[in-house]
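G., before I forget:
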Amino acid sequence: MLPRSQSYLIAVLVLAFGASLFSRSYNPYFLDIALTCGINITLAVSLNLINGYTGQFSLGHAGFMALGAYAAALLTTNFGGTLLPLVGGQTWILFPLALYVGGLVAALAGLLVGAPSLRLKGDYLAIVTLGFGEIIRVLLQNIDAVGGPRGLIGIPDYTTLFWAFGLAAITIYTVWALVNSTYGRGFIAVSDDEVAAEAMGINTTRYKIMAFVVGAFFAGLAGGIYAHFKQYIAPQGFGFDKSIEIVVMVILGGMGNNVGVIIAAVLLTVLTEMLRKFGDYRMILYSLLIIVLMITRPQGLFTWTGKRKTT
Amino acid sequence: MEFLQQLINGLSLGAIYALIALGYTMVYGVLRFINFAHSEVFMVGAFAGYYLGRRLPGASFGGGLLVLLVAMVVCAVLGVVIEKLAYRPLRGRSTLTVLITAIGVSLLLQNAGQLIFGANPKSFPQLFPQQNFTTAGGLVVSSGQIAVFVVTVVLLFALHYIVMKTRIGTAMRALSFNPTAASLVGINNDLVISFTFALGSSLAAAGGILYAMNYPSIDPLMGTLPGMKAFVAAVLGGIGNIPGAALGGVLLGLIETLVVALGGSTYRDAVAFAVLILILLFRPAGLLGKFQTEKV
């Protein structure tokens, strides 16, 4: 008999697979929103591991997403012709491999950025990660092999409900399992009181880097899913705004509260669609929401218990 | 000669960064947080200059100075209002809460700006008489660049006087040294913080107008990049350190112009962040900052 959490994971995977079999018969507009929800859940939960559980403020999540998206898209688009026969022409083997490579590239970048900058605290780290996101964007704009400012086009349409929600489920499970392990105690200790954690013999830098790398890995995977869903990616799509969007999901849901963050990710995705008719006012509402929320409910909308520290 | 020309261009860019960086550094000095909305105050300053400047009959020194002063007052008020509404309720909360709020304020100003001012770039009116001076060696200095140098130097001296010689400046320094002790000796901390925001915001407004004069089109998102670079300048000089911010600004302007001159113009926006990462790695306290050990 499997532990309960693992049976949940498998149940969700089976459900997502079942749902994806009928994707032709769904309304394409709703299917679109559903896929975006899945991607956003992955992004928000992976950022929650860094920002929420470990208490390190990262503003560069879109940068990791961009790396994963570009790496995976390059593999399936530019090298798909040579790689596909190697796996017997089966896209369901090639796609996860490409995603995985994208995740690894993002994780490697996470390690490279995290190792030096995670010695910094709070607001400095925010600025460094923000700067990193911008550097990624500028680099992608300058590399002609990936289309430069024009972006990459003609990415095959591999993303289905199964991939989007399967990945979301795996991300949630991994973050949940990680937080409830010995490592997780370390993450939470770092976020609660870094000095005290260090005094207890926890190598805080190591835990921070680990959270950062795992978060970056899943952001990279989400990027790959996104690329094969939109079939077009451009550097501008992975700017500061995208990072902020993910951060808002985490804040709204409550840092270090996975259930809240998932609700917030779905809510904000749907809300964004519904507010589309207000156009210019959407971002004003968005920013007012952040300010009011921080002043009145810094623990997030969906955190009711006072157990965990809220910042 | 080419090098000297780039030096002049770099210095005028760096002077603008220095003006913005001072606002970051002063707010950090008294409140220990990064005021993300500062770059948007810079943008509002440029737009205040735009709307005021269009009402001037023509470019003149008196009119240009008047526009500059009024825009500085407008932004000083804006800075005080932002502090009062968004940051004061959060006094004493954790840095992250304030930081996120600051990002929210910044987004709000950007989007309100797009709604009110319009998202399209606008060409900035001429405030000062435009003329290019060519020296004997073939160096070209525009009147806009001269305005940047003169205004920046005057403002720096004024700031130095305020911070070092006046009562409120002494109070600012006391507050940044130790807030609790400052209030114990009868300093009204809230008043001093408001004053700091006013001072920093008015410098940002001056920076905004000078920037707009030399890069003649403005839009509501113009503040983000110069703002972030000015922040890097503040960190480069040592955040919380006023001469450091000025030095960091000038250095960063020079480095950026140098990279562009060497043919890396498409990478100019990444340079500042590379500098930031290097400085945080090797000298996190900044060039002029003192390293402080953390007390528990």
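The longest strand of chain A covers residues 152-153. Confidence is low (pLDDT under 50) at residues 307-311 of chain A.

More on Monday.
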